[in-house]
Write a structure and sequence with these properties.
Blueprint lengths: L4 E6 L1 H9 L2 H7 L7 E3 L3 H10 L21 E2 L12 E3 L1 H12 L3 H18 L11 H23 L2 E6 L1
Antiparallel strand pairs: 1-2, 1-5, 3-4, 4-5
């Protein structure tokens, strides 16, 4: 089974609406084309590990704001199962912190973080993380990291909150 990660930019008003009635979020996601939705494929856990040194099993030990890139501290509704759990969200203020932290990570710095994570993965071998082998692994993660970085930059510029989920 594929576990695909998604990030969705939303206005504060939209977020409030989804918190009041999560069915509105489900309805929105029925639309196949939403320019505010970013599919991050299966990179979500690898990028989480690269940025924080923690996988899903130890996410509670990770430090914000990079911990929040993939997962938020707040959920939309316990009853809203997006496939692999409920949708989570980040506030507008958290989005600003995330964007600022991501802007500090150049491609070169991401490569160093990737190499450190790669070495640690080979030692620790966290079975929960899909970690591809070979040189293309870095390019795969870098491509999605850049998309995520741009996504949060745009959310910050627009004063938006961010919802994430795994489907």
């Amino acid at each position: 089974m594929s576990m695909i990660g998604y990030l969705l930019r939303v206005s504060e008003n939209e977020l409030e609406g989804y918190l009041q009635n999560y069915l509105l979020l489900e309805e929105r996601l029925l639309d196949d084309i939403d320019p505010a939705l970013l599919d991050i494929d299966k990179t979500w856990e690898g990028i989480l590990y690269i940025l924080t040194g923690h996988g899903i099993s130890t996410i509670e030990e990770a430090k914000p704001p990079l911990k929040w890139v993939i997962f938020g501290d707040y959920i939309i509704d316990e009853d809203l199962d997006m496939g692999y759990g409920p949708a989570e969200y980040r506030t507008v203020d958290q989005v600003k912190e995330i964007s600022d932290a991501l802007q500090e990570i150049s491609d070169e710095k991401f490569k160093i973080m990737f190499d450190n994570a790669d070495a640690k993965m080979r030692i620790d071998s966290d079975p929960g993380i899909l970690w591809p082998e070979g040189d293309e692994a870095f390019q795969y993660h870098l491509e999605y990291f850049k998309l995520i970085k741009d996504f949060y930059c745009k959310a910050k510029e627009n004063g938006e909150a961010v919802i994430s989920f795994i489907a």
